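pinging the channel bc i need a second pair of eyes. not urgent but kinda urgent?? the chain im working w is below, pasted from the shared doc
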Amino acid sequence: MKKESKIKIATTYAQALYAAAVDKKCVDKVMLNVTELLDAYPDYQKGIQLLNNPVWAVDEKISALKAIAQKLKLNDELYNCLVIVAQNNRFSEFEDILQAFRQIYYAKHNMVEVKVESVVPLNTRQNNLLKSELEKFLKKEVLIEYNINPDILGGLVVRFNSEMIDDSLKGKLNRLESIMKGGQ
């Protein structure tokens, strides 16, 4: 299946889940569950592949989902969405659905995810300053995910939406090298 089709399918499910959560006034609870599931996704990947197996009967999948939902204390709206995903045999899009829900939530709550790479962890003052400047620049609440990357040599690489600000030493050296070779 094409990546575009998978994203479209995932977005459709995520929008339906968001609308149901709004109707039941439980958007924040669903978002909390979605975040927990995304954080735990690597640990449950094999189980999710089993849920995607078309040979396994749908009613058995739903029974397993009910037990999982109770154990993880999932919100009813999220559980109902998972049942529909199982009935339609769409567990191959499960992670994409969760990611799409998170993006819808962020858009509706004027939030943006920002990924920051640095050579060393930022101290509290640097972190607060960076967050403040990004919030002024983006005019949104900023959620920063930090990654340590010694390959950038120094400075920062900041990614948000489809944008990238490369203020790393490696990036500057690469641009200087390109200029010296006569390129743009």
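so The chain has a mean pLDDT of 90. and The radius of gyration is 21 Å. — does that match what u expected or am i reading it wrong
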